[in-house]
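Local shape tokens:
==================
===
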Amino acid sequence: MTYFDNEVLNELLEILGKEDLCAITTSFVDQLDNQLVELTAHCANAELAEMSRIAHSLKGGAGNLGAIALSDIAAAVERHSRSGNTELVTTAMTALPEIAQQTIIELRQLGYLSS
């Protein structure tokens, strides 16, 4: 599975430079950890409106970095939360942590995130 659109990362690297890009990816990962905790808690309480809001933010942040797989699964969480389909929300939430973890691993392998 491809987790990133390398063209987006290369463009960001060209525009920002490595130091600033790494600062952004570090901030993104910190925020991602918090978003995953919040999404899990809201999912357990079937708080779909909050899930939709957080997933929307995650979708945008991931998309801005070119993290296509993460953006796609966040979009699914958002879409299913808005439609009220708790079964599909649960299915998407099951996949989200693994995709988030693989995204972080790939950022490290690409050299955009310190170990």
Q: What stands out?
A: The chain has five helices and no strands. The chain has a mean pLDDT of 95. The chain has one domain: 6-109. Helices lie at 6-16, 18-44, 48-65, 68-83, 86-109.
